């Protein structure tokens, strides 16, 4: 990305400032640039799916690497005039004309509207081997990676609410699925569900994942027993990168996530949020669609503002002068 930018660096130099250059942010920038809007995309270069070699389930892009998708997206958006800025936004201030973004050691771009697509971070269980193998053979989304480990010995690690459901789901891809409750206490119903589904339960605390020759070999329990496995699914805790949004006063729901409408509009006028920062379940193709929807909504919002201003100017220019009194 370029560290330079066109237009003024203070005030509303852009129609829209997009913070976050992943699938959601770049999709929005592409649509807005094609709509002849002045758009800047600021990205820190830390995509959530960077550890993954391939992404799946994206029509026409299945098997493509996440890095290749972003490279293509940047080229497409820039080709229509979107400005790409490498850097991290530390703070965003509201101004009379829109928003002003403060970058660490960089420019201070201003814009009339703001779209935040900063994603989330996956808070992984602190077991040896999990982070090292994350996105390779330690996985999260079975719809993204289940097909690639089909019919192999797989495991699901119990880390919190939803882990049992994940095991029941993963079972579709492999008859040899083991569930490690680990820190969870299973109810009688849950054990029955797993048994009925054909998921074997191995009780006991997990000590680590066994890795040899750069491959996952198994799951080791606290007592030393190793259960051979070739892939492990976990449910990380999703933590949204929403400090910019909450700093602007965006309303949050009871679970702590920023509230948006169907177009990504937040409770703060002029601010949209899309992708994983607003929806923890959004896959790459979903995030790209969210960005496109938000871009259209933002453009309509800008047009409404421009029409209102044009009407005021028209009335002021074409106002009928008061009649002179008859003498």
From TrEMBL:
Catalytic activity line of the entry: [thioredoxin]-dithiol + NADP(+) = [thioredoxin]-disulfide + NADPH + H(+)
Keyword Oxidoreductase applies: yes
Protein's UniProt name: NAD(P)/FAD-dependent oxidoreductase
Domain FAD/NAD(P)-binding: 14-291
Oxidoreductase is among the record's keywords: yes
Assigned keywords, A-Z: Flavoprotein, Oxidoreductase
Record InterPro entries: FAD/NAD-bd_sf, FAD/NAD-binding_dom, Ferredoxin-NADP_redctase_2
Species of provenance: Streptomyces glaucosporus
